[in-house]
Amino acid sequence: MTTFVQGSCDPRFVSVRDAFLENFAARGEKGASVSVFHRGEMVVDLWGGTSDHDELQPWERDTIANFYSAGKPIIATLLLRRLEMEGVSLDEPIISVWPEFAARGKQSTTFRHALCHQAGVPAIRANLTNDDLWQWDVMTNALADSAPWFVAGTRHVYHTNTYGHLIGECLRRLSGVSPHDELERVSSMINADLHYGVGDRDLFRCANIHLDTAASPATLPTDDGGESSMILRGYFNPPGYSSFGVVNTKEWRQAQIPSTNGHGSGRGIASFYNALLSPDRLLSHDALAEAVRAQSTGPCPVLGEDVTFGLGFQPTTPRRSFGPHAGSFGHFGTGGALGMADPHSEIAIGYVMNHVIPRWQSTRNRALIDAVYAVVS
Fold it and tell me: Using H for helix, E for strand and C for coil, what is the string for the chain?
């Protein structure tokens, strides 16, 4: 079918519209939205393609999509914001607000360890089901009771899925409200269409994700404490933790899995990053500077390469580039979803789509980033 792209685009940024159209024509895009802010002004707000499996239903202005790990900086920011409001140090132990987390030798794990993937719990030890996945307390209690896979602070391992429950429960203990409620409040404040747990009235807006639903392992390997067991459990315990087999269900969309099942629009993610660039709107200048600073660098067995982590954010690196300028930061999500900001160029970008490929960086998001930097310097 012919792809119709709608929305607005400042004439200066026509290169972004051209790249967005080319994503559909030549790079396998099915449905997507992209937004760009420059110096606090929205200069691109585009959407197009289809939102259903049969590729008949047009992607609308208010269509939202699962943006996977692009949601990690959002839950991290909610916690960072709360820590700052309460005057709690990043190096305070988690047990100061979540005493149960001390189980099995985790009493020295700090908020900083948790935020930069050094907490030692990238996977849950007890075998869980998808029925458990829909229940916040079951998941966080199992996480608290898990023996660490390594001593906190001694290395980093990407907490692919547990990150959301770990950071989210710290947030809940500090704020007294769920990640869903805190995000709804903050999103309303900055006019960003972002959700952890989609409400009944918004379910119709969710795009169906085109995802290879090849099943998780029929059975998990025995928990032998080894790297392979840790990695598989991180992805598939519970079986649907990474969304396989459940991504388009009501249960998945309405659960709170902040590392993985955030839903929103490209406009929503761009609005979030634009707010970060406005001093003291979400975080103070000092808090944001610490969050986007490299906290740890080195090999990660989950990602299979050397990576650099900030506090929820990833600083730009040659391998995971957010443009040409040092100081840029953001996060990719499985399939190519993107949120990023560049303080030097005063740029904020958000991009979501429903054709999920098994990579975080794609020709599609790369083309959009490059098109923005063809205009700004």
Answer: CCCCEEEEECHHHHHHHHHHHHHHHHCCCCEEEEEEEECCEEEEEEEEEECCCCCCCECCCCCEEECHHHHHHHHHHHHHHHHHHHCCCCCCEHHHCCHHHHCCCCCCCEHHHHHCCCCCCCCCCCCCCHHHHCCHHHHHHHHHHCCCCCCCCCCCCCCCCHHHHHHHHHHHHHHCCCHHHHHHHHHHHHCCCEECCCCHHHHHHECCCECCCCCCCCCCCCCCCCHHHHHHHHHHCCCCCCCCCCCCCHHHHHCCCCCCCCEECHHHHHHHHHHHCCCCCCCCHHHHHHHHCCCEEEEECCCCEEEEECCCCEECCCCCCCCCCCCCEEEECHHHCEEEEECCCCEEEEEEECECCCCCCCHHHHHHHHHHHCCCC
**Whether pTM exceeds 0.90:** yes
- Its CATH class, for the domain covering 63-326, is alpha beta
List, in order, residues 6 or more apart from 289 with CB less than 8 Å away: none
pLDDT digits (tens, 9 = 90+) for 63-115: 999 999 999 999 999 999 999 999 999 999 999 999 999 999 999 999 999 99
User: What tens digit of pLDDT does each residue of 10-36 get?
Assistant: 999 999 999 999 999 999 999 999 999
What residues does each domain of the chain span? 10-27+362-377, 63-326
